[in-house]
Amino acid sequence: MRRRVRTIAGVGAAIVLVVAFGASRLLGGMDGLSSGPASTCEDPVAWDEAAEVVGEHAAVEGPVTAASFEPDVGGGPTFLNLGAAHPETPRFDVVIYEDLRDGFDGPPEEVFEGVSVCAQGRVDERDGVPQIVLDAPGLLERR
């Protein structure tokens, strides 16, 4: 009986460790157990360093130097150019598709032009320019 109790306790402890390890990886916490915390707007990457995090989820911050709404392009994207205006490089682009436009306090190209922003999402690259395609309005904030 005593041996069975120890075995059950050992299995229970192992389950707790597995659950804690899995939660740590999902939440990005517990030093040494995760592959690194996801970046937030509390600790963003500068727009001119975003190429270093292509393929990762990150928060990227910088000044919107140009903004445009392209309703005739597929998906009706709004482009916020951080650091430099299109087609100049280096720059970082935040792409907001038309289906998200109503989630802002006005047209994004007007609301954000000329201010600093922080965008959160997966950093990808298009034509050599790092970018985030915004998944939700709440992932873009004025700084």
List keywords for this structure.
alpha+beta; 2 domains; 143 residues; 7 strands; 2 helices; OB fold (Dihydrolipoamide Acetyltransferase, E2P); five-stranded mixed beta barrel
* First-to-last CA distance: 63 Å
**Relevant CATH superfamily of the largest domain:** Nucleic acid-binding proteins
Strand tally: 7
| Percentage of residues in strands | 25-35%
Unreliable runs: 7-37
- Lateral arrangement of strands in the main beta sheet: 2-3-4-6-5
H/E element sequence: HEEEEHEEE
CATH topology description of the largest domain: OB fold (Dihydrolipoamide Acetyltransferase, E2P)
Tally of domains:
2
Q: In angstroms, what is the radius of gyration?
A: 21 Å
Into which percent range does the helicity of residues fall?
10-25%
CATH secondary-structure class of the largest domain? Mainly Beta
Shape: globular
The CATH architecture of the largest domain:
Beta Barrel
Class of secondary structure makeup: alpha+beta
- Helical segment count: 2
Give the overall average pLDDT.
Answer: 83
What characterizes the major β-sheet?
5 strands, mixed, barrel
